[in-house]
Amino acid sequence: MAVTARLLRLAPRALSQSACLAYAPRMEHRPEDSALMLRYRDGDVAAFEILYGRHKDALFRYLLRHCRQRAAAEDVFQEVWGKIIKSRDNYRPTAKFTTFLYHVAHNCFIDYIRRNKRHGNTADIEPDSHPDSGDCPEMLVEKSLARRKLDAALRSLPDEQRDVFLLYEEAGLGLDEIATITDCKRETAKSRLRYAVRKLRDALDEPPETT
Amino acid sequence: MSDKRMNSDEPGDPRLSAAYREMADERTPEHLDHIILNAARSAAKPRWNKAIAWLRPAAWVATIGVCLAIVIEVSLLPDSEPTGFDSVPPAAVPPATTSPAAATRFEKAAPQATEPAAAQAVQKPARGPSADPEGRSDDADELNRQRELQQQEAVVQDAAPAMMLRSAPATARMEEALTERFCDETETADPNSWLECIIELEREGLHEAARLERERLALAFPPPELP
Fold it and tell me: Which fold has domain A2-11+22-119+136-205?
């Protein structure tokens, strides 16, 4: 409980430092995504680089949480962007680009599951970031414990609930868009998200196991 | 998080979101960035580049071919190519303003047109009475002579445009004669041999040609200035 409380106190600072990039696409540049894709369709590679830079990390994390293996996530990641590149001629800005992107990613992940029956194998995802030099050893331990708990809770979620939660957190999509991507009703998506949030919150609030 | 999401009934949890953000800090590997951006660049190249890839070498080949053709054509042209009306043979000059009947007459009269037809017309009546051994001068003969004169005048009038056209080649020939070289290159290479050639021309009575060659000799080998 103390670890969670400490983590929640640190959250605002973490948001101000690292999560700004993750939230940036949601706040300001969202309307321009379609325009960038249209520019890329007309041959402007720089527009695609901007678009890719905005969405690459969130999409990679979405696939990494789903696939649970880095190599598989990288394969699916390449497949998704390859399809985006191929479909540029037929792209029509009828919906948000993020919806389009994660719809493709969702379908690619389902194809990956069908190709690989051994999807149930789990592997720990090693964090990429290095600890800040200013963090004291206690905080590092707390962060590591919280990460493990949340990661374990995410892995324990059913695929549908995890999918909805990741689309909500990583892609910043609303329930309507999540329902479109996951091909279900809005209420179903809302119910799945509620269950996922409840389970994850319970997992975070659990006291650490004492051995 | 967007305003739409915050105002809606979505069951999100800010605490959980913050905790997830703290945990989810993975970045895309750089080698994936390179692969995908390279694929995007290669896909963005215009496709018609492949379709008309032959256009540039074909344009070069066509340009070189045209240049070669022009060079060969120019090199094959004779050096003393006559210009102007001389390039057209006199017999091929059509009577520009005459009728088809007159054209037929022109073809018959053209060889004689160089000589004054009026002179012939004058000679014939003069020859007529003397050719008559019996000295008869009746009205029928007189009418025949007048008819012949009229026909010859008509021939002269029809041939006049052709004569005018043929006078132009004559002028061109005169101009050509002024620029024509009477001594060949081996003779003009040396002033002494050139002078011998000029003397030979004068012996043959070609004084105008000798004069021209003398002027050319003076231009080519100017006399030394006296101190």
Answer: Arc Repressor Mutant, subunit A (1.10.10)
